[in-house]
């Protein structure tokens, strides 16, 4: 069975131009060409379009456009690993956000508490815990988002409980696409007024978004599985 560009688009709710654009970007395999030069699409093109649409809902159109060509052209084992990584990344982001909320609540519950030396983290340890580069932590410090102490002897940065909590908040919101100026306002409000309804609502909104993306990725997984299964069936 072959389909015109328009008929292919109708299968998934895309316009003719969108189908052509996605083909040009490598999101779907190249169409066959009839003798008159018109594109002819097959069922596996529809599968690829459905997989892309579901993937874009889960991780966003731009990341999906980067990833889908790899799922089409990489070895099937590698493509499957890339899909697994999406689930891992979402789970990691959710874990970081929950740690940010827990750490923040602990600091606000007793802001004057003296923490044991074992609670202090180095810049490398904190970067590893957050999954960011040490240069990101330095940049956040330069922007006034976090304020580590300095060792009197070596001058090395030392992150106590408050600095760690603030760094977790920055990391959680940055992973959700929030720019630095709004994050600075959130942290400034926390330092001045403590936890407010608006602040917790922002963090809870980020958590809800991660949940929505996880559910969308579960839906996308079915289409992506069909995409890989179709690839395997068509391989010689």
Automatic annotation (TrEMBL):
It holds the Pfam family MerR_1. Residues 120-189 form the HTH merR-type domain. Keywords: DNA-binding. PANTHER family: MERR FAMILY REGULATORY PROTEIN, REDOX-CYCLING DRUG-SENSING TRANSCRIPTIONAL ACTIVATOR SOXR. This is MerR family transcriptional regulator. The lineage of its organism: Bacteria, Bacillati, Actinomycetota, Actinomycetes, Micrococcales.
